[in-house]
Amino acid sequence: MKFLLTMLLFLGLVPGAQAGWERVSADTIRFSGDINPGSYKEFLEVSKGGYKNVVLQSFGGTPLTALKIAEDISKNNVKVEIDGYCFSACANYLALAGKTLVLPCDALLGWHGSPTLESDEEIARKNEMLDYPFELTRAYQKWVGEFRARENRFYRSVKVDPALLQDSVAVPSGENIKPKVSFTLDEESGEFSVTRSATLWIPLPDTLETYGVSTSGFCRRYTREDIKTILKQRGMSAIAFSSGRK
Asked: Which of 7, 100, 134, 149 has its CA 20 to 30 A from that of 50?
């Protein structure tokens, strides 16, 4: 039987949405859309001439690309502002790269872990179940190890505790918050698709401060009910989220 398994990392709302860097003024560059492998080259082109402000709106995307961009941003004394939402790799790296982070009252900043959280043993066990070649498993383990070291260097440089990444998985899991799952099945061919909605950790400012994230530019009137309202207004009600703390 043939089958198609589709797992959308975020929402199932914008598959194929294109990333885009643009210069909006002499001092400001903006990113919107998905972070993909071409986003770093585009960033280098758009950022020529310097910048003081970075505006972000993204569901996330390729982690290593996001980290490379964040490393460059962190070398400059810039302000990063969230326009609407910044999730996954956007939150992990880009949002933390500025000297100042601005989160308006109608914006969302959410995490759901990192590829570096899997140990070599977990990777090997999962790949064995999926019957992946041994050589692929070893190559991926090497990639994860190198990425983990680079990720840790970045977190040290921006003075943020990398436990934030671990807790972004542990907190929702501890609250038994799970993604919503839906499927389609073609009765003729037997092909099916499975879609999993996002499960996010959207911590409140006082929680983020415990990890070293500066929240001086955050909306101070920011509660769990506010988050639910923003998600609904933006058509993101499918997101299962936690705003708790470990």
From this structure: 149
